[in-house]
Amino acid sequence: xxxxxxxxxxxxxxxxxxxxxxxxxxxxxxxxxxxxxxxxxxxxxxxxxxxxxxxxxxxxxxxxxxxxxxxxxxxxxxxxxxxxxxxxxxxxxxxxxxxxxxxxxxxxxxxxxxxxxxxxxxxxxxxxxxxxxxxxxxxxxxxxxxxxxxxxxxxxxxxxxxxxxxxxxxxxxxxxxxxxxxxxxxxxxxxxxxxxxxxxxxxxxxxxxxxxxxxxxxxxxxxxxxxxxxxxxxxxxxxxxxxxxxxxxxxxxxxxxxxxxxxxxxxxxxxxxxxxxxxxxxxxxxxxxxxxx
Length: 293
What we know:
This protein has helices spanning 5-25, 28-44, 53-75, 92-95, 99-108, 111-117, 122-133, 138-145, 149-166, 174-189, 193-199, 224-237, 285-288; strands at 200-209, 221-222, 242-249, 252-259, 262-272, 275-282. It is an alpha+beta fold and 293 residues long. Among the domains are: 1-77, Orthogonal Bundle (Rna Polymerase Sigma Factor, Chain: A), CATH 1.10.1740.10; 174-291, Roll (Nuclear Transport Factor 2, Chain: A). Helix 2 packs across helix 3 (53-75). The radius of gyration is 20 Å and the shape is globular.
């Protein structure tokens, strides 16, 4: 029995390639399509001429992701209500032992940062992802993108300023976030408005993504009172045969809500100074398919 070394090499780098594609696109299905196309190009390539497989695969993945992102933007499709990235199940606590590196990776894949990355140009986004999330040297990024190093440094600076001005300053301590998430779930499940108000910052926001395909606010809710009352109302209306599971999504603790065993929504909290600053809820069924099973 022989093994396909090309397959082995691709599988060795799959996690990195998926990380690049997902951060570039914020869409699981599109990222998986990019990986499939990368595999087809890799399997057809003269691999004996490839001196650095990882660099080759990252370059192909990045360029394909840029092309797909340009196509998505060119379509200019309107989205019903607020847009959030597809929830991506991660396991950084188990796979990345270095806590500082884990914090960087968790931040780079967070819902809040990916929302900001949607406002960058495809090239700015590629440079930001490769530099900030994966620590690629400028010279390497320049070679990947067929750009001069000074141009890449300029793109990186512009993207970093843009993201820095718009990204929420959430706390990333996983223990604190998990504790607050559990207390939030207990208060919400009990329709305990007072309990929720004690956890929510006064200027708390709720961002709900339904794509117009399920119940969720079509505008961002502002203020603890509106957020708390909305959550209590949802619980009081109920869903068929509800259950919940905790899991790590986009680098942080999250609640997966199931109805009759099927994914109904994902809830994740943005935390500042020990209070819930933002409640993210993804209920678009198209974005929950990867969580089934």
